[in-house]
Amino acid sequence: MATAEPEGSVVVPAPAAEGRQYLVYEGPRSDISYPLKVLYCGECSMPLEYCEYYPNYEKCKKWLETNLPDHFERLKADGEDGETGDAEKKRQKRGGKGQVKAKKKAEPQGVNLGYMKRGKKRSTVITVLSTYEIDLKEASRFFSQKFSCGSSVISEDEISIQGDKRDDLFDILCEKWPQIDEDDIDDIGEVKK
Ligand SMILES: [Zn+2]
Q1: Is pTM, for the whole model, over 0.70?
Q2: Domain tally, the chain
Q3: Domain with 159 in it: what CATH number?
């Protein structure tokens, strides 16, 4: 049952709040003229300073450009010198609900070189991430010519080559596909299937 606070009771702050910093209201500031004029965005309906948290910020900017060109110019100027400065920091700190983060584009994760054993024979397994935009069929043909042996595409991102060719592949991969950095190639040892 919820009880109303008895009159005259002392409100004790929750323990979690101890030691935390709160904004203290110190009255009107001399550097600001009152009443404060709040400008609202016609696109997202929020005060202008919240526009950057709106998922469709680009639309807000368009609206600003047409309706409040002065503000738009100031915004542009802020953006140019402050992207990694205060604005950026604020954005990272605030977080929380209502904020829709732009999805980060997946970065290439690299190339894995492993080998598989079948009896005494080994084969090399190259796992190439699709982000490298390498045509695996073409790559497999290239390997079979280069090593004069069999090579085939075994899954949507894997090529197998007869024999253990891992050592040679470090150089060959980077030479043939400049988008692959040698540091992105990992030797993952034996692959068990
Ligand atoms: Zn807006």
Answers
A1: no
A2: 2
A3: 3.30.780.10
